[in-house]
Structures are given as structure tokens and as C-alpha cells.
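Protein record
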Amino acid sequence: MSDVLGSVLKFGSISAATAVSIYACFLGLIANQFFQAHAVYLHAFQMTWFKDLTVPEVFGFLHNQATPFSLKSSDGETLFAWHILPPELYRQHESELLTEPAAGFVHDITARLAFRLLRDDPEAILILHMHGAGGTVGSGYRVPNYRALSAGRPDKIHVLTFDYRGFGRSTGTPTESGLMLDGIAVVEWAIKVAGIPPERILFFAQSMGTAVTSALITHYALESTVFAGTVLVAPFVDVPTLVATYRIAGTIPILGPIAKIPVLFKYLSTFIRDKWLSGDRLAQYVSMNEANSQKYRLTIIHAQDDYDVPWTHTPQMFWRAVSGTGTVPRGLTFDEMESKKAGIRKDRGEGGTVVEWQTENGIIREEILKYGLHDVIMGNPIITLAVMRILDSK
């Protein structure tokens, strides 16, 4: 009996030592920038294998409804993009679009009818779509997402989606500074090539795309440029906070044990290259718009059953944003913000909760849904309504 017990204890000790060694190796990998880039951006996972991104019909689009083209970043990277026509506008011009040759990859998008329908309509709305980590413009729930975005005004809302550097057919390697340049290139194309003024441009972002968008709108707010509005779905406060709270399948913590040791976690965080401080940027964005009396619209959406980015990041983002309005006491804590929200929160039962904070200049809206997961939510009616509310408030 004692021999059996001894064998069990020996096996347990070896297993524990092995697990600790593997975890230590994992922590060592975190300091490696190559590993970090692939862990944060997941750009190696295309998720559209054996499908040609230059043939949008493969992804369910109508003939010439989506135009594949590319644009250049300021540092010379080539970014692959789709311009997607709204369905009612497509129907109105279907015969003309059907007679055009199949788009394939278009070297001069300005020569296409779809582009002219965007550029020449003084009421056209353009949504700049910033997708999440991993995959391409055609992956997973992104195609249904484009349809949900246009659904509110199916004759007016165009979508421009693109792959960041290192993703899909785009060149380069993703970094925080690089993705910022990519976003700026897309905005500049929309304004200067497509001729769409900022007041008719709306940002939609999901997951990692919310970090890119928070940086972009703050960058342009510094130049006193404000867009029609911003919708952030499943955002995260910053990368260190995300890795501290992330759990595989919502159950197995990655750095949770280390996060409970603040000194050790703070030291480990110094090795994180791309921190994406979205919470801080959002506070700065709101503060600048308030100081300049610029009108802004911000909607933050999250599902409680999101296993990839915990939904608790969204109340943190809301708190940071509201703290920038100047309508709450300086130094208001998160818990104090939650107490204030309790008085204005609207409970919609199984539909979740809504909190809306208004100032003379802006509207900040938080929607916490009970269901929607991390990606499925992108094709749900909540997305269509979020876009419609922003456009109707202008």
C-alpha cells in the first residue's frame, strides 16, 4: 500500500514539476516579440484557406457588389481592401453592374461604377470597418457583419473593410505603430480619394479593431477632426489588462495566477511591446472633443458570454470615456461610476442592459447583452440599430 502511495506521490510530483516548467517556458516566450506578435494579432491564421479574396462572390456577394482593390500606407505597405455596395443601391443599378466585367482585383477602383456611386452621392455614408485579430476580410462572421452594418439604410451605407499589414493579402508585419499607419491610410483614402467628408464617415470596430479605432479617432481629434460616430464591439482596456483577464474557453486563465502578484505582473508587462492603451485613448478622445465643443457619438457593445474578451472590459471603457467628459468629479473611481450608472441603467431582461451618458456635445452609450459571444454578435440586429441611432442623432 505504501509503495502504491509512494508511486502516486512521485507521479504527482513529476506532473506538477512538468506543468510548472511548461508554464515557465510560456512566460519566457511572452518576452519574445515574434511570439507576442503572433499571439496578439493571430495574423498567421487566415481562416479563408482555399478561397480567393479577389473573388468576393465566393463569400456570398452579388456580381460586382464588392470590389477588391488595394491602397498604400505612408510607409509603403500594400493593404488589401473591399468596397461593398449596400443592397438596395445595388438593386437600383443592378443592370449596369451586371454588364461591367467581373471585378476580380481592380487596379484602378476609381474607374468602377461602384466607386462612382459612393463618390457622387452627397448623402452616401461610408463605414470604415476595423476587424479583429486573426483571419481576413472574408473570415467567419465578418461577411454577415457587413450586411448588418448596411441594413439600416440599404441604399446609402457603403462599407470599406481591409486587412491590416501582415493579414491576408496585405504586405508587412503587424505592429501597433504600423496598424496606426494602416488606419490613417484608409481614412485618408476615404476623405481624399472617395471624397467623403468626416461627418459622413462612421467607424465600426470589433475586438482588436477597437484598439486600432480608439487610437485613430484620438489621432484625428488632435486635429479637431470628428467623424459621424464610432461603434466598438467587444473592446479591451489595454493588452496587459486583457492578458491578465483572458481565459481559454472562458475557464482556464493564462496569466491569471501571475496577475495576482502585482509586482511580478507589472515586471512582466514591461516586456509587452504593443500595449494598445485603448482606455486611456478613449478618455483623451472624449476630453478633446468636449474641450473643442465637437459633436461625437460613441457606442460600446459587449456580450456577457464572450469567452475571448471578458465583457467586464466594457464598463471599464465606459468609465474611462465618461471621465473625459468633465461632467463627473475628477478622480471618480470605477466603483463610484458603477453606483451612478445604477440610477440610469435600463434593464431589458434577457436583452441585457443599456446605459447612456449625454453631454451638450456627445453621447456615450454602453450596451451589455446577455448573449452574442465574441463574433456571432457582429451579424445581429444590435449592430444595425447601433449604426441607425448614431446616424439618426446627427
